[in-house]
Amino acid sequence: MCSRSERAPHAVVFRCQPWNRYSFLALLACLEAQPQNHLTPILWLNTRTKAEAVSTLHRWLETHDRLMVVYSFMSPQWPETAQEVRALQPLRKGGRLMLAAGGPHPSASPRSVLRAGFDVVCRGDGEPIFPQLVGQWARKASLHFIPGLYLDTPTGVVFTGQPLKAFLEDVPALPVAHGKFGPIEITRGCPYGCRYCQTPRLKGRSIRHRSPKAIFRAVEAMVEAGRMDLRFISPNALAYGSPDGRRPNAAALQELLSGLRHRVSHAGRIFFGTFPSEVRPEWVQPHLMELLVRYADNRQIVMGAQSGDPHMLQRMNRGHSVEDVRRACAVAKSFGIRPVVDFILGLPDETYEQMSRSVDFMEELAETGARIHAHTFMPLPGSPWGVRKPEPIPDTIQARMERLISQGKLFGQWKAQARLALQALREAKRFLPGHSF
Predict the structure, then answer these.
(1) What's the pTM?
(2) Of 80, 217, 284, 364, which is most buried by a Cβ count within 10 Å?
(3) Measured between alpha carbons, how far is 343 from 373 in angstroms, rounded to an integer?
(4) What's the mean per-residue pLDDT of the chain?
């Protein structure tokens, strides 16, 4: 074991999992934009199990005086993350290990995350908060003056004030200096108010776009590094450049897509309107599909129907109709693009008849060539339905979905999501008795 004089002073540890690697790219990029933090040692914890995570951090504590371990997660990952944090508690003796959390679930339910064993929760956009957090922690200075933090203190939970919103132009799109690449976030925020969704409540209903110039800088760095496949992050890819997120801006979309194609030429591939940049069905319009076919390489597009029942679409405040979905699939197919359509079953108070109508619609769309991506409703804290329990999916409904799977027409983690939803509710009761989250 190293003596104290031989240890490095500190390091920031990113707890990497398949679901959060894009979040850490954004955090690393915002550190690069702050010269005082640019040389902060970064360690990547990529272990698969909590036991491996504990042993690795124990080893790193032998070579570092202090570690800040950073987690970013969504609500489906909360049960697994809570279990790992409980396993880490013995390492926290002596105050050399600080656990920090951010992302959708911690932002929406910060007190439950603190009670699970975290020291600090970053709420909202991470870019304005994270560099300050790292700088103050590295100097062993107070965190109480950084807006947007929930802190676990001996006298109780302290909230340091409303966080600032990030201007996407203030930080690089990717942490190029560290040689890390991935999908480029082009738009943040959503003007729609779907009742099951956290996005407009956490990221705002005012839509924010990264400029073409900033996007192109990131693309040029990727091309220079030999990374020629381009993917993007957006709540609705076809809304890029829209002033309000409700009306297309075809000129802005063409400027973006043509500029991307110019930079990767035909040696690269552009994936637009597929994960993680899906689209809304009412935006699948001929003049926008023409741009997609002209400049992008994907020949499928992912859109959210969410239900085949008109009343349920209204209840969830979805903002489009069943006919909009049917029309979008027809338009996409007319351009040689295969629709991949998302559905959610087990919504709050969803009846058997409503689920049956959704499966009817799945079968109709699948018959015409669409592929169905099925989900089970999960209560997401911070959303209007964040305290609602999912309705069980009847065996007869599941059997119809299984038939679509056997035909290669349906896929998704809907069964696993049903289990995760129940686990999340149990974790909620554990840390916030009397509340769903």
Answers:
(1) 0.91
(2) 284
(3) 6
(4) 92
